[in-house]
Write a structure and sequence with these properties.
The structure is a single chain. The chain has 287 residues and is of the alpha/beta class. The chain folds into two domains: 2-145, HUPs (Rossmann fold), CATH 3.40.50; 165-285, TPP-binding domain (Rossmann fold, 3-Layer(aba) Sandwich), CATH 3.40.50.1220. It is 25% helix and 26% strand. It contains eight helices and 15 strands. The protein has helices at residues 13-17, 47-60, 72-85, 184-194, 202-206, 237-240, 259-262, 271-285, and strands spanning 2-7, 23-28, 38-40, 65-69, 89-93, 95-99, 102-108, 114-118, 124-128, 143-145, 171-175, 197-200, 227-231, 247-252, 265-268. The strands form four sheets. The protein has a five-stranded parallel β-sheet with strand order 2-1-4-9-5. It is elongated, with a radius of gyration of 21 Å. It starts with a strand and ends with a helix. The model has no long low-confidence stretch (mean pLDDT 86).
C-alpha cells in the first residue's frame, strides 16, 4: 500500500504509519532541504496554498492512503482538499490499522468510548495524532512542487514558536470541572511546591479559568510526564488521549469516575478535601 504523509514541523506520524504501510512518501509544507521527498516552492501559509500543494503531490504519487499530521494548518488544508475532491476524511485518529482489508482510524468518542471509522474513499484520507518530532531524511533530492502565493494573506512577521512547558514537564497537574474556581490558587501553590506544570480539560479553558494553551487532549496538546495528577477530571477519552504518563494519580468525588479505571492511584474524595493532605504529605517527605 502506497502512503503519502503530509506534515509541517511534526512528522511523528510517519512512525505510526509504518505499522500499516512500508511504502511511505513524505511531503513537507516547509521548504526544507532533505526533510521530505516532496517540498513546496514556497512555505505554505494558508489552506488554499496547502490544497494546491497536496493536489500537486497527489498527481505525482498515486497513493492508496494520505495521512495528515494533527497540526492546525495541515488539518485545515486536509479538510479543504477533502471538500474540493469530494473525498471522505477521518479526523483526529489516535491509531490506524487494517481490518478485513479495510483502512480504519480509531477516533475518541464520548467518555471512554472509541469509534472504529472505516475509510470508504480512495485514496483514503486521515488526520493522525502524534506529537513526536522525529527527523525524516529523504534518500534523494526532494522534488519541488510549484505553489502560488495566495493573495488573501501577507506575512508581517515570522518568529519561532515557543515550546509549551507542559510538554517537557516531569509532573503535570490537570484541572477538571470538579475543581472549584476558589481552589485554583491552591492548585497553583501545589504546583509550585512540586515544581509541576498545570494543564486542564477543554471546558475549564472555555470557562476562562486557564488559557487555551493549557488544554490537554484531543483539542489541545499531548503531555508525557512521569506523574500526572488529575484533579476533578472524569476521564473522558478526549482528555486522556493526550495523557501519556507513567503514573496517574486521580482525585475525584465520584466513585464511578471512568478515570479510576485507568489511573495508578485512585483517590475518591473532594478535591478541596484532598489538597491539604497532599500539601502536608509534601512537607513531610521534603524534610
Amino acid at each position: 500500500m502506497k502512503t503519502l504523509v503530509f506534515f509541517n514541523k511534526n512528522n511523528g506520524v510517519i512512525e505510526s504509519t509504518k505499522s500499516v504501510s512500508k511504502d511511505i512518501i513524505a511531503a513537507s509544507f516547509s521548504k526544507c532541504k532533505d526533510c521530505a521527498d516532496f517540498i513546496p516552492s514556497l512555505d505554505i501559509q494558508t489552506p488554499i496554498e496547502g490544497y494546491e500543494f497536496i493536489s500537486g503531490v497527489s498527481k505525482e504519487v498515486e497513493a492508496d492512503l494520505i495521512i495528515f499530521t494533527d497540526e492546525t494548518l495541515i488539518r485545515e488544508s486536509a479538510a479543504y482538499f477533502a471538500g474540493k475532491e469530494q473525498l471522505g476524511l477521518i479526523s483526529h485518529s489516535t491509531r490506524i490499522y487494517i481490518k478485513d482489508n479495510k483502512i480504519i482510524g480509531l477516533v475518541p468518542g464520548w467518555e471512554n468510548l472509541e469509534a472504529e471509522v472505516y475509510a470508504t474513499s480512495r485514496p483514503a484520507l486521515m488526520i493522525l495524532k502524534n506529537n513526536e518530532s522525529i527527523e525524516y531524511h529523504s534518500e534523494s533530492e526532494p522534488k519541488i512542487i510549484e505553489v502560488r502565493r495566495s493573495d488573501d494573506v501577507h506575512l508581517i512577521e515570522r518568529s519561532e514558536k515557543e515550546t509549551n512547558p507542559l510538554q517537557n514537564a516531569r509532573i503535570v497537574i490537570g484541572i477538571g470541572r470538579g475543581v472549584k474556581k476558589s481552589q485554583i490558587s491552591k492548585v497553583k501553590h501545589l504546583a509550585k511546591e512540586l515544581n509541576a506544570e498545570i494543564g486542564c480539560t477543554r471546558p475549564v479553558a472555555d470557562m476562562g479559568l486557564l488559557p487555551l494553551n493549557r488544554v490537554i487532549g484531543d483539542s489541545g496538546i499531548s503531555v508525557n510526564p512521569e506523574i500526572y495528577i488529575a484533579l476533578g477530571i472524569s476521564g473522558a477519552i478526549q482528555h486522556l488521549s493526550g495523557v501519556n504518563a507513567k503514573y496517574i494519580i486521580a482525585i475525584n468525588s465520584d466513585p464511578s469516575a471512568p478515570i479510576f479505571v485507568k489511573c495508578t492511584l485512585p483517590i475518591n474524595a473532594k478535591v478541596e478535601d484532598a489538597l491539604p493532605e497532599i500539601e502536608q504529605w509534601i512537607r513531610n517527605t521534603s524534610r
